[in-house]
Amino acid sequence: MTETTFTDLRAFLDVLRRQKDLAVIEAPVDARLEAAEIHRRVIAAGGPALLFTNVRGADFPLVTNLFGTRARAELAFGRRPQRFVQRMAELAQTLLPPSPRKLWEARDVFAEAARIGTRRSRRGPVMDVVETEVRLDRLPVLTCWPEDSGPFLTLPTVYTEHPRRPGHNLGIYRMQVHDPRTTGMHWQIGKGGGFHYAEAEAAGAALPVTVFLGGPPALILAAIAPLPENVPELMLASLLGGRRLDLTAGPGPHPLVSAAEFALVGEVPPARRRPEGPFGDHYGYYSLRHDYRCSR
Predict the structure, then answer these.
(1) Which of 14, 108, 281, 291 is catalytic?
(2) What is the pTM assigned to this prediction?
């Protein structure tokens, strides 16, 4: 069976729509509690992905439950990474000592490896609209539980670079929206972005941050994956997607994922904290209110 490679989130939604695994909700829905409760009931029933086209007060649609079933997860991510790793493990046992015959038999792996990495393009869809007067309240940001202290971005892929040496981190961290231009940055101890921030803060400098919303499904999975500190998540995103990841120069210091729906470009200043939480936790209770970094 041939696996589909999704270059962006819209391509994935198009396939779900053709497979009748996407419910489009055109009725007005509130981003505070109502959308999350609809989502909760649908995912509990093993239902489809949800596309809310009319979120009150927002200028953009909202999609949820993208990977809520095994079938959708396999459609989005496939089994390519597992096969690649298994094949590499086989070669570790059989390729040495190398010979022309053994190298020829391993040509499938070399062909796959040649497609892994990033490539720069002069322009991508993410740069079609560039705004400097940012208003986060235009986004359909959810408030999920009655006692949550505010709305927060769900599945933001947060990109940072080490301030003193080569290396990047891509992770998903909770970002409470404090006001139209400011969010929290929930970096816990041991997180890659937190390491980068600690280095910058020790030098009295702000850490540049780029946050992607949407993009290829492989980008989201790469950000979730618990990789060792020095393993680049963008390379994993390329492996998961089965193709090189297109990057585009943007208005900030970081390259932008060309196919992302949104890129929020900002910074986390040093020695600035702001209360965050409580939030409903997946363990069934509310996390405590606590001071966290503040990004702008």
Answers:
(1) 281
(2) 0.87
